[in-house]
Design goal:
globular
Length: 49
Amino acid sequence: MARAPIDGSTLRWARELGRVPREELAKALGVEPERIDAFESEEGQPTFR
């Protein structure tokens, strides 16, 4: 599966600016909140479905 090149600090900035809790973002994306942490710390990258 192809990876989406996401900059973790930009993702965190946008989420915080929009005042979206990581749990809410995770639910909208269909992932566990820990995956949001991984995306934002650049330990993981989202995939295209």
